[in-house]
């Protein structure tokens, strides 16, 4: 499956039915060639003058199924905003 196909699917929480948004990026382990997480742009945010758009990280393990039109995820009733990277 291509990333462009995944981007067309809406991501939905199975517990609440909440629409989380659409895939904006992937977190990938390049050494192992595996997807670690889906990155979803938080809906309702505006880019540009109104600030940085927030992202929701959905770990790969929380995906229930990838269907024709949707990606169903579990344990994302309270989405975690992507943490800032600490530079050491």
From TrEMBL:
Origin superkingdom: Bacteria
Pfam families: PRC
Location of the PRC-barrel domain: 3-76
Matches recorded under InterPro entries: PRC-brl_dom (IPR027275), PRC_barrel-like_sf (IPR011033), Spore_YlmC/YmxH (IPR014238)
SUPFAM superfamilies: PRC-barrel domain (SSF50346)
PANTHER family reported for this sequence: SPORULATION PROTEIN YLMC-RELATED
NCBIfam families from the UniProt entry: spore_YlmC_YmxH
Name this polypeptide is given: PRC-barrel domain-containing protein
Organism encoding this protein: Pontibacillus halophilus JSM 076056 = DSM 19796
């Amino acid at each position: 499956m291509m990333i462009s196909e995944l981007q067309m699917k809406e991501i939905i929480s199975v517990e609440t039915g909440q629409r989380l948004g659409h895939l904006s990026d992937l977190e990938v382990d390049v050494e192992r060639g595996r997807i670690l997480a889906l990155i979803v742009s938080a809906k309702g945010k505006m880019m540009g003058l109104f600030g940085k758009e927030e992202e929701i990280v959905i770990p790969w393990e929380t995906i229930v199924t990838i269907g024709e039109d949707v990606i169903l995820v579990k344990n994302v009733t309270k989405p975690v905003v992507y943490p800032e990277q600490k530079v050491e």
